[in-house]
Amino acid sequence: MRKIYFTPGPTELHPIVHEAIAQALKDDICSINHRSKEFVEIYRSTDKALRSLLNIPDDFVILFLGSATECMDRLVQNCVLKSSHHFVNGAFAERFHKTAIELGKDSTATTVEHGSGFDFSELPDMTNSEMICFTQNETSSGVATDLEKIYEVKEKYPEAIVVIDVVTSVPYIEPDFSKLDAAFFSVQKGFGMPAGLGVLIVNKRCIEKAKHLKEKGGSIGSYHNLLSLAEYAVKYQNTETPNVLAIYLLGKVSQHLLEYGKEKMRLETEAKAELLYSAIDSCANIQALVKKQDERSKTIIIAQAGDKQAEIKQRLLDSGYVVGSGYGKYKDSEIRIANFPMHRLEDVKNIAEVFSSTS
Amino acid sequence: MRKIYFTPGPTELHPIVHEAIAQALKDDICSINHRSKEFVEIYRSTDKALRSLLNIPDDFVILFLGSATECMDRLVQNCVLKSSHHFVNGAFAERFHKTAIELGKDSTATTVEHGSGFDFSELPDMTNSEMICFTQNETSSGVATDLEKIYEVKEKYPEAIVVIDVVTSVPYIEPDFSKLDAAFFSVQKGFGMPAGLGVLIVNKRCIEKAKHLKEKGGSIGSYHNLLSLAEYAVKYQNTETPNVLAIYLLGKVSQHLLEYGKEKMRLETEAKAELLYSAIDSCANIQALVKKQDERSKTIIIAQAGDKQAEIKQRLLDSGYVVGSGYGKYKDSEIRIANFPMHRLEDVKNIAEVFSSTS
Question: Are the Cβ atoms of A223 and B32 closer than 8 angstroms?
């Protein structure tokens, strides 16, 4: 039986990826020079489609890195001299905070329990935080942070660089970039692509900050410092030979979603999420990890299945569905289900049915 | 007409890459979890095949990064506190030196003219160089540095970490790793794969150096520091979600070359190189850029074609062959021809014929 991956990422490939790879091979996309007009056209086309899909303004530049983890690394290296602040509600937010510490910064964190969101009525003093970091959709806990709350933090700390990790929330969410400074994601999640590309979207304030740090004599890194990356990006090129195939595929998937209709895709995502949460909520012995309705991620749905976990996972697998286990210490008790654009309503209905029929 | 790429990289895909990608898609390689047993098996299998192909000893660890440029960046960040020395005979060696400078090191360089090798009878004093860097096969100039000369440098400076950039010389060359500390390459050259993976091979001295730098309070980077990378690599995993497809393909290409016969592949490479250099040497108005026979790269062959360059490139293109232009300021006067395992003898004969018939 053909398996369908509902894992948080890597996940099921978007169906158009198969044909797009075949076309790329036919058109020698992997052999062309990364300084050629052909490559520039690919980068430009991907840039345009992604800008349109996520409504990215012209004063933001789109940079291609190796992974979302590299985006964290380069953001800290380029935008933080002394300290950043991290809102930590799971393993990926913690990774961002740890990155800052490992890069020698005196960074701070606001930490909440597994499955919880933040209390925005009690914000810490972030006056000295050069960068404020949110993992907008925490993949390990399925907690989504309301973008409006993040915009309010930006309003309160306009001098800080406010960054959102949207690894598992794009392309479902469309952030208001005018109220942010940077966002990043990787492509093996919502875009349904093979892993190996990180996308970092930054405004001029980030670039200016990198310039400032460099002028103060600090190192902002080498080939992947924001100044070099941005200098090449305006020419639709990379500093090094990038993952050309992935840049090509990202353009094709984005273009496809635009043609399909981004509003339609978003409404469908919400409908599928509603189905899954309803099914989980209807179970007697299983609960959604995230209790507060307004903190529940639409794209990463987590069930506390306890001793039913293995049985449910097996029943899903018997129907062809691969879902994720809980992250880290919740490996054997939680089930994580991704709900991305390539995941079809009829499959989600089948998954929901397995939960509903669990005694 | 189907084009065949003889460009230095990205270049023609190895023919088995097409079928390997098809198999990968069929087997859901891009959807599996990067902490799963399936992934561990892929990493282990690639590690094994590559070790066998390049004769990498057990006390070296194979790490997967984003590009060869990232390998330079991470090596400097992890193995150099104050200074490295760079043998610079072209743009890629210069990139390595520049990387060290950009990362705040007080690094030095021995520089020679375009198309020349180094005079090993007059070595600089490298007593204070923690890392000594050779671009063993300089892609911008087609100069190959004799591995024996590099081993002699290592013998003279046993305390230094000696690194070779073998981006365009593997899998043709098989370095003696017992006389080196690190080597790195990217896969879109001799391995004929899509770009997006850097391979860094390091011994324990590099890891120990990273540990030492960290203990002294310096930052060796975050998720891609050598300690974290090596810690995961022994479990056949990466610190982040890597380019899984590329790791899979590298294993398939390496396995194929092993079955084909590495000695046979190497002898063929030398025969094809001989054909190309002979044809270029036979031209009245065209010369090989590298004058000294023993400095001529077998895998990157460069012709100084002067005002014949555009004409020859066009004639080659008319026959279906895409070759590279000169690097940087030699863009309009030189022709760079790659000679990798996937490049067939009959095509090389056709290319040689175009040179031989140039008046």
Answer: no
